Amino acid sequence: MINRRHFLTTVAVGTASAAALAACGTGSSSAGKTGSAENPVTINYTWWGNDDRAERTRKAIALFESKNPDVKVNGNFTDFAGYWQKRATEAAGGGLPDVMQWDLSYLRDYGQRNQLLDLGTVNINTDAFEKSLLPSGQIKGKTYGIPTSTNAFAVYYDPAKLASLGIAEPTGKWTYDEYNAFLTEVGTKSNGALFGGTDYTGVWWMFNIWLRQNNIEAFTEDGKLGFTKDDLKKWWNQTAALRGTPAIISEERVTQLAPKSPFGSNVTATEVTWDNFMAGYLADSGAKELKLVPVPSDDPDNLGLFLKPSMLMVASAKTQYKDAAARFIDFMVNDPEVGQIFKTSRGVPASKTQRDGTTFEGTDKLVVDYEKSIEQYLKDAPEPPIVGFGTLEASFKRIASDLNYGKLDINAATDAWFKEAEDLIKQNA
Amino acid sequence: MTTMATPTQSAPDAPAPHYNPKSESAGAKRAKSTFFHMVALALTAVVLYPGLWMIASAFKPNSEIGGANTSLWSSNFSMDNFVTAMEGIGGVSTLQFFTNSLVLAIGAVVGTVLSASVSAYAFARINFPGRGLFFGMMIATLLLPFHVVIIPQYIVFQQLGLVDTYIPLLIGKFLAADAFFVFLMVQFMRGLPAELDEAARIDGAGHARIFGSIMLPLMKPALISTSIFSFIWSWNDFLGPLLYLNTPDKYPLPLALRLFVDQTQSSDYGAMIAMSVLALLPVLIFFLIFQRYIVEGVSTQGLKG
Predict the structure, then answer these.
(1) Domain containing A322 — which CATH number?
(2) For residues A188-218, b (16+ Cβ closer than 10 Å) or e, as one string?
(3) How many domains does chain A contain in total?
(4) A174 and A247: one domain?
(5) Are residues A186 and A44 in the same domain?
(6) Rounded percentage of chain B residues whose pLDDT exceeds 90
(7) 8-37 in A: which are within 8 Å (CB) of B?
(8) Smallest Cβ distance to A21: which of B67, B158, B162?
(9) I want to staple A144 with a disulfide (CB 3.0 to 4.6 A). Which of A116, A325, A355, B152 is the partner?
């Protein structure tokens, strides 16, 4: 059967006969909202990711199509940076794909501009989800995204490197002072060959977790900053004594190593980041084994940890095939066989049905076990970040690195970041 | 050369053998020239180093690329990266990406050469009403940043149902939308003597005949410069294909290259670099074949002027 897409391709490659093609384009509007096995509807699904994800998604789509003969899924993918350029153009042109893989930091932006479908109006089963997780896909009571999977913050370490230095493996029950002492120990014992870690105070999410440990909200409900300059100064002072010592890798060195991380380059012994980076670190460093422990906290009962959707599924507000789109999303987030296909490559499956139906081995098991081990400490996930959050996160990192370079002192750095943040919030208000 | 030149020059009137300003200056010249070449070579090495780095890294295992690894060559020499690169991505073979890039690049060359030369002929040789205005408008499009027109253009092609075809990427080339090339050819044509087409007109040739039989053959250098540039630009274009193509089967190489590096998962730098090396080859070959014409193009342009 020659469908429209195939026909267009054939013609497009050979000629530039615009008029004839324009006629084809306008002639084929929707064949109806629902399809049948003989006359299926086609929905477009797009995601970012590498070769590996493309292969896994292809399998999942084939499975979906075999179970739903009335729907065909047309899958497309690009890299992460290009993905958002493309979405921005499509949103402006009114042509977003029916179903999309989504990132939390873009949810509010597109949701507020009514580009995304309210998934509360269609039939998607969310019974198997943690109740604390769902609000992260909701804005003002409307559900724009369903999490496919979760990740949590953790401290990574390489047990082999610690053993070679004769340092005991951490248990993950530590205060900030203990963590700092640990970083210093690594730097001293290795005589500077191995740094303790990167400056964790430059990581926005670690700051956010520290605020939660102190029962402070990062952003208030009306989208303002929930913390004061003094809080930020106190935070950046945490590692003031470590900067410039072997405990913390210098900013010059970090820049030299880019795009690889210091931890992936085997230059530091620990790293504080999301637990789904495991596979990447293993591949970059060539290490046999990496382990995860919880982040430090001065209050042993409040680690400030939460599960964050590592990615979400959303639908375009303009999709003509709401029913098919909803069924596809439901399948991708809940189906146990999809869990078997993706394992933890998207993060740990968010839906219990999917998680329980998946067997985890090796690295996958480490990440799943870590998230299980912190279950008792988990609190509600934060709301979708404010519009322009990506810029704030980047400027947090940039200003913290200036602090590390010694270009700014803590007071000046705090003032600089607050000015940028307040300007941005005013702009988007 | 200098040793040959010295005796003939100094023999007739050289009173003392030790006094020979010519040979001294030749020695100084040689030192200068050696110095110049040393500096030039050093600069070339600096400029070419990234290319060398790329080729060397293509043969390294992924974990030895970048990061804390500073040595250029690895002891673990392997072709694995090329094997991975040739396997393709997500069910699309690497050969397909090459074919797509080639289709786009050749389409761009053919379209640009055809349309820009005809338009240039009109601007340079036909005195139609409003020529100055249209020429000015064409030049004005050069000043318009690409990013300004992205969204309006996208909407137009979206409404026409042409997204996910090669039409949005090629139609502009066939309609002489690349003002730079039209301008280049207009300038070149203005340099050609008007007597040639006047003579042809006396012999009864119309515009089509003058263009086809007189102008096109004389314009070869300009046509070749245009071909080279439009080939390379199209081959390297990332944003256009990113916005207009959806199906991975239709992706050209620059999009495919990015798929090896994913910030949210593991990145296969080795395969990406190996594929970059492969992607570089056609451009390099194309340039090597036609590069002498670039020089020719520039020099004849000077002569004809």
Answers:
(1) 3.40.190.10
(2) ebbeeebbbbbbbbbbbbbbbbbbbbbeeeb
(3) 2
(4) yes
(5) no
(6) 49
(7) 8-9, 11-13, 16, 18, 21-22, 24-26, 28
(8) B162
(9) A116
Residues A248 and A314 in one domain: no
Cα gap B59→B85, rounded to integer Å:
12
pLDDT the model gives residue B300: 55
Q: How large is the ipTM?
A: 0.74
Q: What is the pTM of this model?
A: 0.79
Residue A196 located in a structural domain: yes
Specify if A75 maps to a domain: yes
Contact A49, B262 (CB under 8 A): yes
Per-residue pLDDT tens digits for A27-72: 333 333 677 888 899 999 999 988 888 889 999 999 999 999 999 9
**Same structural domain, A77 and A198:** no
Inter-chain touch B262–A55, beta carbons under 8 Å: no
pLDDT single digits (tens) A181-236? 999 999 999 988 899 999 999 999 999 999 999 999 898 877 789 999 999 999 99
Q: Is residue A22 part of a domain?
A: no
Domain assignment of residue A128, given as a range:
39-149+310-367
Here the tokens at position B197 are: 């087409």
pLDDT higher than threshold 90 for residue A338: yes
B165-202 pLDDT per residue, tens: 999 999 999 999 989 999 999 999 998 998 988 999 99
Q: With CA atoms as reference, report the closest residue to A344 among A327, A328, A359.
A: A359
Helices marked H in A122-268: 159-164, 176-189, 204-213, 229-237, 251-257
Q: Encode pLDDT of B63-74 as tens digits.
A: 778 777 777 887
Is the omega angle on the peptide bond into residue A259 within 30 degrees of 0, that is, cis? yes
- With a CB-CB cutoff of 8 Å, which residues 103-142 of chain B face chain A? 103, 111
Instruction: Judge if A301 and A173 occupy the same domain.
Output: yes
Task: Outline which parts of chain B fall under CATH 1.10.3720.10.
Answer: 88-304
Structure tokens at A161: 């490197």
Q: What is the band of B5 on the pLDDT scale with cuts at 50, 70, 90?
A: very low
Is the CB of A78 less than 8 angstroms away from the CB of B89? no
Query: Would residue A3 count as lying in a domain?
Result: no
Residues counted in chain A: 429
Inform me whether the pLDDT recorded for B295 exceeds 90. Answer: no
Angstrom distance (rounded) from CA A267 to CA A261: 9
- Check whether residue A169 and residue A248 sit in a common domain: yes
A325 and A238 belong to one structural domain:
no
Whether the CB-CB separation of A427 and A405 falls below 8 Å is answered with no
Task: Answer yes or no: is pLDDT of A169 > 80.
Answer: yes
| pLDDT for the residue numbered B184 | 92
Domain B88-304 has CATH 1.10.3720.10: yes
